[in-house]
Design goal:
Layout lengths: L1 H5 L1 H18 L2 H7 L3 H4 L7 H4 L7 H22 L1 H22 L12 H14 L4 E2 L8 E2 H18 L6 H18 L3 H17 L1
Antiparallel strand pairs: 1-2
Amino acid sequence: MEYLMVAPVASFIFAITTLTSIMAFSNDNLYANMILHPYSVSRKHRIYTLITSGLIHNDWMHLFFNMLSFYFFAFRLESMLGHWQFGTLYFVSLILSDLPTVYKHRNDDWYHSLGASGAVSAVIFSFILFDPLSKMMIMPIPIGIPAVIFGALYLVYCNYASKHSRDNINHDAHMFGALSGLLITIVLMPHVVHGFIEQITEGVQSLLH
């Protein structure tokens, strides 16, 4: 109930994404209707799947990791960003993170994509703008590292994996979701840039003294 009061939009997204994903696990028709098919979208069919594909997941593990990441950052972010601003960030990023995939695979009739990873990446990177020195874990590093360094490493990895990986993960959505999160946050709250720079500057100065 506390989460619902403080972050109603994040609570709704968490609940509906979990529910629709679980339903789609056992409903092939629902799964097929919600999944993103770039070949169709590029031909102006099934445009709605730019959003619905973010409400379903491939399996329990895929759902668990996305919702775990969402849980760690989304509820705090909504309290900092605002309710309608958080909703705008999430759903616009969900769409923007998929557009490069639609273009890249516009002629691949076999290609499909799903999951909330792009929007979750946007949430994480928006949070980084507000709190760049908070500690984040990245495997296999056994200690927390500053969020701003995590973000830089994440983008480098996504860019590399997008070009070279063959693991069936949509790394483009992760990268463009993260970039969308940064851009939309700055548009909605331009002063966050000053706070970000100020925190980084203070962090560097504390290391030098």
